[in-house]
Write a structure and sequence with these properties.
By secondary structure, this protein is α+β, with helices and mostly antiparallel strands. Strand 12 (405-410) and strand 13 form a beta hairpin. Helix 2 (32-42) runs parallel beside helix 4 (85-101) and helix 9 crosses helix 10.
Length: 639
């Protein structure tokens, strides 16, 4: 159950006190992901992504003082986190050691501990790296790599910690930076894209794992000669020119040569659908998309995309939606797009199971991004658009050949008209992505596409494929583009943020009950939203409660991998602890129209006939709900 009272925040601590190790440990544990992200961003990218991840965790875990320590710098900032002297202390220690780790080794002095590879954490047989972002994150990472360690630290303290320049200089001075003002001037040479610092691209706590070279490891255990051969190969690769692209771009070295593998890597073998194939085919999915973009004949770009897909190297940022295999192609895939999108060259490929997006910086620097999304079983709506790129908080889509018009509308303003988006060669003009927005949720932009069958709404959830929005009962859903569906979705829009990065295929909203409130407070609505995924499991169900006149619905209950509120089990039951305008607390519960009665047990006992229940309660009370259906069956409370 959820109540609507909010506990007051504790008052911030006073400045410059002494910090006990227990206080520092509490701050480190509470803000560990933020501190590790700070260390990861300040460490030099030349260490490699795996070494940066492990080192960032090691430096953060070693940031605890050995005893009671005075905090030298606590900048006065706006957030409550920064009023904590324990946090200020461990942040300073993390920053100091991260800067030391970027200092080159010298033969004239013993190396500091931070300059040596960390002993712990120890990960054997795996390479760990954060999830991939887009072309903007890749470009920012490359720009930061050109800065000195102090300049990188200044940029990160500005963007991640929100410090003013004066506060940044105080922290850098405390971290033993010789010229903090010069560091900030150098940091000014990189555009202030601070919102990107919160991207999964720079989160060393949310990691992907890939094996190291399995064949080479086996060979090492068999013979020293194989190890020497491997070292010789690595040495040859190191001596290759560092600027520009090789024939295979950012791909790892090939380990096997066979006809099938070589055919899959040959740009000349790529399949391409005819421009009018979708008009004649019985299928309306990605298999009938024609190849579009101005670089579809750039064999060098296409070969790099195929080679990186087959063998992603150290500089390739790989991401995949849950349940999507990230292995190489089994045969020549289909080309859907090759062209320039914002600051990157992008190639979109399809192998019947997955959409694969390859992106490389168009300035010719090394490094690439590779994104996978599962699309098997796509229908006309599911195959109507995919993400070409994201830049400056905007998202740009490639639409299906059957799409006639594109528009953007704010889901939170159901009565407002949609704003048209230009379509050029199937590429839609950029629109602001609510999935990338930070701060309070005040709008939620969705893409509205019109084809020969009507209009459909799609929303960006931070992945390669947008999710379609529908409305209606589980027995028969329809597009959410109608006036009634838009009114249903309006107070639910911000709850879509809970479904990001889960491989969501579609989200349906169903207003399953209406309930008169006690104390003459009007009538509330109960709505359940169900997110279906491309892989089948991992479904998410939310039961939401909307008070009369409310702008946002409150999440009353949630569950994953349950059939409730779906075609297999079109039933749902949820409750909420609610405070009336008169100051009285009540337990409110509601089920679908097939619910004959509801019973509450546990913290309070109450029963009611019909599909709604109202019972007087006390603040903080908890109860378990169970409903009886008109056919004699039962339904349990969600969550």
């Amino acid at each position: 159950m959820q109540s609507q009272d909010v506990a007051p925040r504790p008052a911030p601590a006073s400045a410059d006190p002494a910090v006990d190790v227990e206080q520092a440990e509490a701050a480190l544990v509470e803000h560990y992901p933020r501190l590790v992200r700070l260390a990861y961003l300040v460490l030099p990218p030349s260490l490699g992504r795996n070494r940066r991840v492990v080192t960032a965790h090691a430096l953060t875990q070693r940031a605890l003082p050995r005893g009671r320590t005075a905090t030298p710098v606590i900048p006065g900032q706006a957030t409550g986190r920064d009023g904590d002297p324990g946090y200020a202390l461990v942040r300073l220690r993390v920053l100091r050691t991260a800067l030391e780790a970027g200092t080159p080794l010298s033969f004239r002095a013993l190396p500091k501990r931070a300059q040596l590879p960390p002993l712990l954490p120890l990960v054997r047989g795996l390479r760990l790296f954060p999830h991939s972002g887009g072309a903007d994150e890749l470009a920012l990472d490359q720009s930061l790599s050109t800065l000195s360690g102090p300049a990188r630290a200044g940029y990160v303290l500005r963007g991640l910690e929100g410090l003013t320049d004066a506060e940044v200089r105080r922290v850098l001075d405390a971290a033993r930076v010789q010229d903090s003002a010069a560091a900030l001037r150098e940091a000014d040479t990189v555009p202030a894209q601070y919102v990107l610092l919160g991207s999964p691209e720079f989160d060393p706590c949310a990691l992907q794992a890939r094996p190291t070279d399995l064949m080479r490891r086996r060979q090492h255990t068999k013979a020293a000669l194989a190890a020497a051969a491997a070292l010789a190969v690595c040495g040859a690769l190191i001596l290759l020119p560092g600027d520009g692209w090789g024939p295979d771009g950012a791909a790892a070295p090939p380990y096997a040569q066979n006809p099938a593998a070589q055919a899959a890597l040959d740009p000349a073998q790529l399949t391409r659908a005819a421009p009018t194939a979708w008009e004649r085919s019985a299928r309306t999915d990605f298999s009938v998309w024609p190849a579009r973009g101005e670089l579809t004949k750039d064999s060098g770009l296409l070969r790099r995309a195929l080679a990186v897909w087959a063998r992603p190297g150290e500089r390739v940022q790989v991401s995949a939606t849950p349940g999507t295999p990230s292995g190489g192609p089994s045969g020549p895939p289909q080309l859907l797009y090759a062209g320039t999108v914002d600051s990157a060259r992008v190639v979109i490929l399809y192998d019947g199971l997955r959409i694969v997006r390859y992106a490389e910086p168009k300035d010719g620097t090394q490094g690439a991004a590779l994104d996978f999304a599962r699309v098997d079983g796509a229908d006309r709506t599911g195959a109507s658009a995919l993400v070409l790129g994201r830049a400056d908080g905007n998202v740009r889509y490639l639409t299906a050949p059957w799409v006639k018009k594109a528009a953007v509308r704010d889901l939170m303003k159901p009565s407002a008209a949609a704003t048209g988006l230009a379509l050029t060669g199937g590429v839609a003009a950029p629109l602001a992505s609510s999935a990338l927005a930070t701060g309070a949720c005040t709008q939620w932009n969705v893409l509205q596409l019109t084809d020969g069958t009507g209009s459909h709404l799609l929303t960006d959830l931070g992945e390669l494929l947008p999710a379609s929005l529908t409305a209606g009962g589980p027995e028969g859903t329809s597009s959410a583009s109608g006036a009634s569906a838009l009114r249903t979705w309006s107070p639910l829009a911000c709850s879509l943020a809970e479904m990001r990065s889960a491989g969501v295929r579609s989200v349906n909203a169903w207003a399953y009950a209406r309930q008169s409130l006690p104390d003459g407070s009007g009538a509330a609505r109960w709505v359940c939203t169900r997110a279906e995924t491309w892989r089948g499991d991992g479904t998410r169900v939310l039961a939401q409660f909307l008070q009369p006149g409310g702008t946002y619905a409150a999440v009353a209950a949630k569950a994953e991998d349950v059939p409730a509120c779906g075609p297999r089990d079109p039933q749902v039951l949820a409750g909420v602890l609610w405070k009336s305008e008169g100051g009285h607390w009540y337990l409110l519960a509601a089920g679908g129209e097939d619910t004959a009665s509801i019973a509450a047990t546990g913290g309070l006992h109450a029963t009611a006939r019909g599909n709604v229940l109202i019972a007087a309660a006390k603040q903080g009370a908890r109860a378990e709900l169970k409903g009886t259906l008109t056919n004699g069956g039962s339904v349990a409370g969600l969550g």
